[in-house]
Amino acid sequence: MKISIKYGIIIASVIIGTLLCYWFVDIPIAWFFHHEDQSSVRVMADRITEAGNSAWILVPSLVLWIVLWRKWRDHAKKWMVLFLSVAVSGILANIIKVIVCRTRPPLLFDQGIYDIDMFGFVIDFLHNSFPSGHATTAMSAATVGAIMYPALRIPLYIAGGIVAFSRVMVGVHYFSDVIVGTFIGVATALFFTYKFLR
After folding, report:
1. Domains defined for the chain, CATH in brackets
2. DSSP 103
3. φ, ψ for residue 38 (rounded to 5)?
4. Closest listed residue to residue 179, CA positions, set 10, 55, 2
């Protein structure tokens, strides 16, 4: 009972935080970083954000999972958990993107459009902002790493957070997109690590 109350509070907090960001925070932060377009911070963010590309994690983790499975099953399971966490969280994020159909910041900057077309089922970069797939990937990988190597959990979460927030800095996501992407990534990683590595 206490566990379900705890999870309920976490989910409610994410929902409330996301709504508050949608109404009051997303637009000012997006415009702030849009005006910083030519800064050295933006150049750095452009490089950092690539680390959230799931291919950098999915391909090597799948290969190591397969290669190690016969002789070193315990090690293989760790790579399996990393692969499943990133893959499943990414699939969930992409399904939600198509259902929610939220416009991305470039449409706000160029045309003043800040909108959600719930159940629009549009597959288009400019209308698939919510949630951030890069944030999902970064925080899913960081969580798996933090559970497997507790001594590194703080630097791993900091690195994951920086990659996630870089999506706002480069102007392709709103802050609330990152919040929900982070939640999906962490929740999926916790599920798979609990299921296979406890």
Report:
1. 2-197 (1.20.144.10)
2. P
3. -100, 5
4. 10
Task: Please work out, in degrees rounded to the nearest 5, the angle formed at the alpha carbon of residue 129 by the alpha carbons of 124 and 132.
Answer: 125
Q: Considering only CA atoms, which of 117, 149, 138 is closest in space to residue 184?
A: 138
CB 136 within 8 A of CB 162: no
Residue 155 is which amino acid? P
Which pLDDT score, from 0 to 100, does residue 38 have?
Answer: 66
Q: How confident is the model at residue 197 (pLDDT cuts 50, 70, 90)?
A: confident
- Rounded alpha-carbon distances, angstroms, from residue 190 to 103, 140, 145, 184, 197: 30, 8, 11, 10, 10
**Tokens at 106, concatenated:** 């470039």
Residue 37: pLDDT over 70 = no
Q: Distance (Å, rounded) from C-alpha 123 to C-alpha 109?
A: 21
Please report the pLDDT score of residue 133 as a whole number.
97
Tokens describing residue 155: 């630097």
Rounded Cα gap, residues 147 and 151, in angstroms: 9
Q: Is the pLDDT of residue 84 over 90?
A: yes
Instruction: Note whether 144 and 85 are within 8 A (CB).
Output: yes
User: In this structure, are residues 88 and 57 in contact, taking their beta carbons and an 8 Å threshold?
Assistant: no
Is the dihedral angle over the CA atoms 46, 59, 177, 161 positive or is it negative?
negative
Mean pLDDT of all residues in 102-120:
96
pTM tops 0.90, yes or no: yes
